[in-house]
């Protein structure tokens, strides 16, 4: 098969989405921008009036911003983890989902840390974290981990984009693509022409980076968990928190990837590449992770219940009274319902797997909420100010709007990236259609012009 | 337009009258409300000088917390001998109502047959204040403080005696004494006892750090003794026991500097990762430079990994 002509066909297939923007897309992007603008207004309010416009007070210093941060960062780490696994082990699944996973990884990692900044009362002192870091503090480790991970994910994402940029560069001349985009393809393709040396070199560094991204994800996951578990707070001080976070993160990450796959498949008309089989396997992975996550959740609360520590008892009382429904939704519905759906073969359809993923993702978000808020509402020493809004947390409209704006920013950036590069990597499709050979085997082949 | 004030002339007048008469009804500091206290004491100080001190203070009869020191009152200090008054000196009360006179070690006092020094402090009457006078009788006690190491034991020995005009020393007994160590802000009681046959001895505890030079100031005090009054004796001695200097813990979990292994692990981790970043970027530049050296016409046949 002539790869050049196949490449041309592929470009032809994906080019319309890169060339034109439909009215629907314009409305969609406009709506997202409008939501982000409202979010910016809320941000302005918070910056000018301070944390008083949020539900955060002296005791509950972290609210839904922190919950969003944990969820997004965990999704990012699990994205990096899955993407690394796909690349490192040359999984054939990478054709369908690798690009989506990589984009999710980078975008989550860009938006997630913004939420932790919003938790800070004195953003003007942010640089103190770098000026006076305390090496023993998990916060310092987390800052290092996040910064390092962002750089790693960016480099890794870029490496996987290079062959596609080269294809786009070589074929964009004959299409109605804006000049700046053509120029961008040319710059970002860095003269990649798929020679044997270039290919080998790129393969080598991508493989190294994929291994490193897996390790980094595990380290960063653990560090994020240690921010909580290395304190003596009830509900946080736990030895299994790091693996619990890793399993929970993978569970939410896989659920998020399945939801994104569903949306991308539907709105980008990629049924040809993202098939039912992908959802089926995704569903099985989600099932396994749901069972693991359920086991960890049970162990966590069970051992806490048995500890007979007064403060733990107070926390559990709170979880089963004030947060009863949230607890049921997070830890029963959010785990058992996905297991119930995915356990039966006949439910492993695109629709049901996606529904199970939505329930799982919502459950994990609520679980994170129950990890952060009730603990902060259960201090060792009662606070002096006994106003109800000082004791109990409820998210203000500013926090809700900024949370929605974060989702809008994610979707907007995803849509914009989808306007620049195909969401299914063309080079992987080409590789999948040619015989699955290792680079070393290919090395023996001459590259014909 | 007529002011509303004119409608309430009566009330306005009452308020104005009340305001104006405030000064008239203000209470003056009338001395008849105060009872004067004239206190006289003597202290034989560490350098064997003798301090004569009068406190002259008026206390409010109804509110005991309200006290007014008598300032600038001239107090005469006298030595009484057979109804004869010998002026030792005079002093004016300070803002705190205290008048002091320090008599040197070699001051000669007249004593009665039992060896008592009769001292009197007097305030002569003025137009406002009546005469005040108080007498005290003390024997001149010689208190010696000896600090020595006996068989490597730091030992404090106090000897107390009186001396007659012929220089004959008579040891004293049944005199309570308190021994202190001077601290930065106050004195710390380290021993209490009673002088017997003119002596009192005890072993010093080893746990005092002393000042920066290792010196300890030890004070022995006889307080308000019926016969001898107040006597202070103190000495400085190089007896400070420096405990092993507490060094700030370095490189521990809760210290300023982290444990060494943390730096090592973090450095290895970060170096490993960032070196890999650099390696990747260098390789990207190599890919670019190779691409730049290739013909401008792109390759026509791609194979990808």
Task: Please characterize this protein's 3D structure.
Chain A is an all-alpha fold and 449 residues long. Chain A has a single domain (3-435), classed as Up-down Bundle (Formate dehydrogenase/DMSO reductase fold), CATH 1.20.1630.10. Chain A contains 17 helices and no strands. Mean pLDDT of chain A is 87; it is low at 435-449. Chain B has 305 residues and is an alpha+beta fold. In chain B, the strands form 3 sheets. In chain B, strands 1, 2, 3, 6, 12, 13, 15 and 16 form an 8-stranded mixed beta sheet that branches. The longest helix of chain B has 34 residues, at 260-293. The A-B interface holds A 2-4, 7, 134-136, 141, 144, 148, 151-152, 155, 159, 162-163, 166-167, 169-170, 189-195, 197-199, 201-205, 208-209, 212, 216, 219, 427-428, 430-431, 434, 439, 442, 445, 447-449 and B 253-254, 258-259, 262-263, 266, 269-270, 273-274, 276-277, 279-281, 283-284, 286-292, 294, 298-305.
Q: How many DSSP helices of chain B?
A: 3
Order of helices and strands of chain A: HHHHHHHHHHHHHHHHH
Shape of chain B: elongated
Number of helices of chain A: 17
Shape of chain A: globular
Backbone structural class of chain B:
alpha+beta
Helix content of chain A: over 70%
Assigned CATH architecture of chain A:
Up-down Bundle
Radius of gyration of chain A: 23 Å
Query: Tally of extended strands of chain B?
Result: 16
Determine the strand fraction of chain A and express it as a percent band.
Answer: under 5%
Just give the CATH class of the domain at 31-139 in chain B: Mainly Beta
Q: What is the assigned CATH homologous superfamily of the domain at 31-139 in chain B?
A: SOR catalytic domain
For the secondary structure, the number of strands of chain A is: 0
What string gives the helices and strands of chain B in order?
A: HHEEEEEEEEEEEEEEEEH
């Amino acid at each position: 098969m002539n790869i050049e002509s196949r490449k041309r066909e592929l470009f032809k297939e994906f080019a319309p989405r890169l060339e034109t923007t439909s009215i629907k897309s314009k409305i969609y992007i406009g709506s997202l921008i409008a939501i982000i603008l409202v979010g910016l207004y809320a941000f302005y309010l918070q910056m000018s009036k301070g944390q008083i416009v949020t539900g955060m007070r002296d005791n509950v210093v972290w609210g839904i911003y922190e919950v969003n941060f944990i969820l997004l960062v965990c999704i990012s780490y699990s994205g990096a983890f899955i993407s690394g696994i796909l690349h490192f082990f040359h999984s054939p699944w990478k054709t369908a989902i690798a690009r989506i996973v990589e984009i999710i990884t980078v975008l989550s990692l860009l938006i997630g840390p913004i939420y932790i900044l919003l938790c800070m009362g004195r953003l003007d002192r942010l640089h103190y974290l770098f000026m006076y870091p305390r090496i023993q503090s998990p916060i310092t480790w987390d800052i290092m981990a996040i910064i390092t991970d962002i750089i790693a994910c960016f480099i890794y994402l870029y490496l996987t984009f290079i062959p596609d940029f080269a294809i786009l560069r070589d074929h964009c001349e004959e299409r109605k693509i804006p000049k700046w985009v053509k120029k961008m393809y040319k710059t970002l393709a860095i003269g990649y022409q798929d020679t044997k040396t270039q290919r080998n070199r790129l393969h080598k560094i991508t493989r190294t980076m994929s291994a490193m991204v897996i390790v980094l994800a595990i380290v960063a996951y653990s560090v994020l968990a240690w921010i909580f578990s290395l304190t003596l707070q009830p509900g946080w001080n736990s030895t299994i928190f790091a693996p619990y976070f890793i399993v929970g993160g993978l569970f939410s990450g896989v659920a998020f990837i399945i939801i994104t796959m569903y949306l991308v498949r539907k709105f980008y008309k990629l049924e040809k590449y993202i098939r039912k089989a992908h959802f089926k396997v995704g569903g099985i992975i989600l099932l396994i992770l749901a069972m693991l996550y359920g086991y960890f959740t049970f162990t966590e609360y069970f051992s806490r219940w048995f500890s007979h520590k007064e403060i733990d008892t107070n926390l559990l009382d709170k979880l089963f009274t004030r947060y009863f429904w949230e607890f049921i939704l997070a830890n029963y519905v959010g785990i058992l319902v996905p297991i119930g759906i995915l356990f039966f073969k006949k439910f492993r359809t695109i629709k049901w797997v996606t529904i199970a993923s939505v329930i799982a993702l919502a459950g994990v978000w609520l679980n994170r909420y129950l990890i952060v808020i009730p603990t902060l509402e259960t201090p060792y020493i009662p606070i002096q100010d006994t106003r109800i809004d000082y004791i109990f947390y409820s998210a203000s409209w500013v926090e809700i709007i900024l949370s929605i704006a974060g989702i809008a920013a994610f979707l907007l950036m995803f849509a914009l990236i989808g306007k620049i590069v195909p969401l299914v990597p063309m080079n992987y499709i080409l590789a999948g259609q040619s015989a699955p050979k290792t680079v070393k085997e290919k090395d023996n082949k001459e590259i014909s012009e | 337009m007529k002011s509303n004030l004119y409608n309430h002339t009566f009330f306005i007048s009452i308020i104005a009258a009340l305001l104006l008469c405030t000064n008239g009804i203000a209470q003056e500091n009338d001395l008849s409300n105060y009872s004067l206290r004239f206190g006289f004491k003597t202290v034989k100080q560490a350098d064997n000088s003798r301090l004569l001190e009068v406190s002259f203070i008026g206390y409010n009869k109804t509110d005991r917390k309200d006290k007014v020191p008598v300032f600038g009152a001239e107090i005469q200090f006298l030595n009484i001998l057979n109804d004869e008054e010998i002026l030792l000196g005079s002093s004016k009360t300070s803002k705190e109502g205290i008048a002091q006179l320090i008599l040197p070690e070699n001051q000669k006092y007249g004593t009665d047959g039992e060896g008592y020094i009769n001292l009197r402090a007097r305030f002569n009457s003025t137009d406002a204040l009546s005469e005040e006078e108080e007498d005290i009788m003390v024997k001149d006690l010689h208190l010696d403080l000896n600090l020595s190491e006996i068989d490597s034991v730091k030992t404090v020995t106090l000897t107390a005696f009186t001396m007659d005009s012929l220089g004959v020393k008579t040891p004293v007994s049944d005199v309570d004494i308190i021994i202190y160590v001077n601290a930065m802000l106050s004195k710390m009681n380290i021993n209490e006892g009673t002088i017997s046959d003119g002596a009192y001895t005890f072993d010093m505890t080893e746990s005092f750090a002393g000042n920066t030079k290792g010196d300890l100031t030890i004070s022995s005090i006889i307080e308000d003794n019926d016969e001898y009054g107040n006597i202070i004796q103190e000495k400085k001695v190089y007896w400070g026991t420096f405990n092993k200097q507490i060094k700030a813990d370095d490189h521990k979990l809760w210290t300023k500097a982290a444990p060494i292994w943390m730096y090592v692990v973090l450095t290895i981790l970060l170096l490993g990762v960032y070196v890999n970043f650099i390696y990747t970027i260098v390789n990207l530049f190599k890919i670019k430079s190779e691409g730049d050296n290739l013909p401008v016409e792109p390759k026509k046949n791609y194979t990808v990994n």
